[in-house]
Structures are given as C-alpha cells and as structure tokens.
Amino acid sequence: MRRSLWLPTALLCAASQPPEPRLAGPKMHKTASTTLGGILARAANKYKWQARLYGTTHPLDPAPRFGSRLKKAETPSILYAHVYGSANEGNPSDVMLLPSGKKFKMRRLPVYEFAQLQTYYGKAVPGARLVVSLREPLARYISMMNYFAHAERDTKKELDGDTTQLFFEALRKHVARGRGGDYQSRVLGLRNASATSSFIQQMDNILLLTTARMDESLIVLRRALGWAPEDILHLDVHVSCSDGVRYDGRAVLCVEPLLKELPRDLHEAIVSLHRNDLLLYNAADAAVASRFVKLGPDGEQERDKLRLRKRQLAFHCQREGPSSTYRPDKAAFDGDPCVPYLINDASFQMYLSRRPPSYVFDGRTFIDKSGTPVKRHKKEWRDVFHLRALQYNVSYGTLPGELAKRLEKRRSVPTTRGAA
Q1: Which pTM was predicted?
Q2: Residues 6+ apart with CB under 8 A from 205
Q3: Beta carbons of 227 and 213 less than 8 angstroms apart
Q4: CA pair distance 39, 312, nearest whole angstrom
Q5: DSSP character for 156?
Q6: Nearest to residue 190, comparing CAs of 280, 92, 93?
Q7: What is the per-residue pLDDT across 116-145, written as a single tens digit (0 to 9) for each?
Q8: DSSP state, 407?
Q9: On the CB side of 241, how many CA atoms lie within 13 Å of its CA?
Q10: For every residue of 81-117, which 3-state class applies, written as one string?
Q11: For residue 332, what pLDDT is reported?
C-alpha cells in the first residue's frame, strides 16, 4: 500500500504564491543561522524573490547598498547577513597572523543601539519584519570558541595532549579577557539589561527562532508568512559533532560533551559574561513555546510530519563528506535536487544566481511541477580541501585525513628537481 504524502502531490504543485515577505535580521554565528539561511535561500529561489544572504551589514551605515557598484543596486526583500566584525567575537586575539606571516588587526563588532539597527533595516528593506535566531548562550559560547579560537590553535603543541582539557585551559584565558560575552544581545544592539528588557516587551511582532525548539519555531514562522509546509524542510549544516571539522577543514570538538564536562568555576565565569544573553534567550524561548502551543494539536501533527520528512530527506540525500566544507560546482545545482539542501552559506550566492528549478520532496524522491519524479545525478562531492586546505592548514599542523597522508607521502619521495 502506498504511503500517504505529507500533502497530496497535486496540492503541493498547485500551491499558490505567498505574498513577498519583507524580512531582515542579523545572522549570528552558531545559532543555526546557516540552517535558517538555507531555508530562506530555497524559498527565495522557489518564489523568485530577491534575497541577500551573504556578505556583511553595518548598522551605522547611513545609506545601505548591496551589489556591485558598477550595476544597479540590489533591492532585496529578504536580508539575513552577518554584522560587520561579529565573526571575530569568537577570536580573542587582537591581531590575526596568517600562515604567510602577514598580520592584520581584528575587526570588532561596532557599538550601536537597537534603534540604530532598526533604522538600518528600515532603509535596507523598507517595511521589514525582524527575524532573529537565538541559541542557549553557554552552548553558543562554547561552540563559537570551539569553532574559531580552538580550531585556529597550533596543534603541533598538542599531539600528545588531552584536547578537552587543553580546550578548557585556553577557554579560561579567553573568559578572563571577557571576549565574546553577551554576543547575541550585543549583535541586536542591546547594551544593558534595561535595553534587553525593553526589547523583550516588543517581541510580539518579531519572528523568533530558538535552536532548542527549531522545528516549532519554523512552523510558527512559515504560518506567519503563509508559506507551504515543504518550504521549511531542511537538513542541519555546520554540525561539529558529525562534521568534525569547520569550513576550512581544521578540526573542531563535539560541543555536547564539552558542556557536560565543563568545570564548575569555569561555568560560573561564563554565566557572568552572559547575563543579558540569558535574559534574552529565556524570554525568546518561552515566547516560541507559547506561540507553538497556541497552534494546538494541528501544530504538533505538523511537527511530527516535519521530523519524519527530515529523516526521509537525510536518507535520500546522504552526504559524502562534512557539510561545513562542501563547495559544489555551479553545474551540481542543475543535476542534483539534493544540492540546495546540502550547501552552507558559502554557496548561497552561487545558488541564488544560478536559479535552478525547485522541486518538492514527497518522502521518497523529488518531484517536479507535473508530479514526475526527478532522479539524482550526483557529481563529485566538492569540498574546501580542493581549494583552501593546503593554504591554511599546513602551517598550523591541522591538515586532516587523507590529505595529510598524501602530503607526508609526497614529502618522503626524493625530488629530482634541479638534477644535472
């Protein structure tokens, strides 16, 4: 007997075009922002909306402009990008030293208020509704320090060390300097408890997502925007525990065990750095829970179906490498309907410029507008190791896996260059 679809194929393919959204928000590191960005990218591609999901934004810029200066400025209806300097909040160093020996001063998050962020978004996307994805502050902090400060350490000194304890020792130094604390509230321009409390009172019209309730958050979001259920179908990306590496191939640790083994005094010190973030996150998570409860049994049924469909999609679109380093060629978008679900933010621009056809996944395969199954035509799993591994990792001693073995093998082979 044929299994029932999430929705009948005819209904999926005949779904009406939802109104063009006006959305803007700051993409924050380690808050499932790449997962949300992928959902926004696929919706923009499907409905032919213009979206800006890459690059950086500067809340103090009086005249936001996107795209090449040689062309007409882009006018996105969806703006979801990192704030200038926010990436370096996970790096406690003031100066960055590249393997080449070149140094440059770290860019830091500018100081601005929430009202200034609102003004910026109002100019960039007039009439935009704020969309914010948040994560439990301690988990986010550990994850960010793991992803940036830990990944960029010199592992040549750690070959025989306990990586977990070495991480905690390094983390103590970062915490003592106060780097990266209250990251989420500062990105939103909430500089103190009073500003955070004021923001919480205004959350009714903000599209909130929390990683602890990501599926519930997405269901509330898609209903608020009038999107179809399949528009929020996704695969998680940048998952440290399964990937084992970050975007450039450097090794990272699994965050969950780090949280469980975190020494009590270090835990308390990190908590003291996140008073505003804890206030913000707890209120946002409670708001998401409340909004989802109001959907009643219908919301719970949709959540169960979404989770089932995600498992089915993961089985159908199996990865051949870490999601964090995946860099498909442009042609991959034309032949493989799984690629838009496997990419991370480094490929959003290519995807949106390519504008491949959009298909619906029915639990077994992808189907086109006529209901015809679309087969996968898998190409080589192109990852960052082809592009950056040698450039970044040789000097740091963090070259992973087979590439390291190949490199050592090449070094062991006598060279004949320059022989008479």
Answers
A1: 0.86
A2: 129, 130
A3: no
A4: 17
A5: G
A6: 280
A7: 999 999 999 999 999 999 999 999 999 988
A8: H
A9: 7
A10: EEECCHHHHHCCCCEEECCCCCEEECCCCCCCCHHHH
A11: 84
